[in-house]
Amino acid sequence: MKKRYFCIFILCLCIVSLSNTVFATNWVRVGTDEYYIDSDTPIRKGKVLYYWEVYIDTAGHKRLGYYGIDLRNPRGAHLMKGYYYNQDNLLMNEIVRPHGFSVWPGSDMDKAIDLALTYAKEGEPTDTIPTLP
């Protein structure tokens, strides 16, 4: 009987621990600013690159964005998801209107794309929110 309760306890413990699983994230700095890309998530699918980036302002607030990048020349970016967190990583706002824009050659965004391409793997994109730094 004790063995049965022990097995049920272990099963419940596994279920609870898996539901709160946090995926490790490897944030890599772009240039000298507080601007980072997640090197674990870049996915290339044909002529489109998908990746997460975070910008940390001087107050410690974080702007997290998920981008789809058209790699044809000239490059174009589409912010697909965006979030704004306070210094304690608590969600303050969600960017509700995805939008697209041009990527200027030599800009921080252009440098981030080049860096993300060095980590990109072929596959299907996922928009699972990464762990904040």
Plain-language structure description:
The protein has one domain (24-122). It is 23% helix and 37% strand. The chain contains 2 helices and 9 strands. It has helices at 2-19, 108-119; strands at residues 27-29, 35-38, 43-45, 48-56, 62-70, 76-85, 91-95, 99-102, 121-122. A hairpin with a 5-residue loop joins β6 (76-85) and β7 (91-95).
Largest sheet: 9 strands, mixed
Order of helices and strands: HEEEEEEEEHE
Tally of strands = 9
Number of domain units: 1
> How many angstroms separate the termini?
46 Å
Please work out how many helical segments DSSP would assign: 2
Class from secondary-structure proportions = alpha+beta
Taken from the alpha-carbon principal axes, the silhouette is: globular
Overall pLDDT confidence:
85
Strand content: 35-45%
State the helicity in percent bands.
Answer: 10-25%
What is the alpha-carbon Rg in Å?
Answer: 19 Å
| Poorly predicted sequence stretches spanning 5 or more consecutive residues | 11-23
How are the SSEs placed, and which strands pair?
Blueprint: H1 2-19, E1 27-29, E2 35-38, E3 43-45, E4 48-56, E5 62-70, E6 76-85, E7 91-95, E8 99-102, H2 108-119, E9 121-122
Parallel strand pairs: 3-9
Antiparallel strand pairs: 1-2, 2-4, 3-4, 4-5, 5-6, 6-7, 6-8
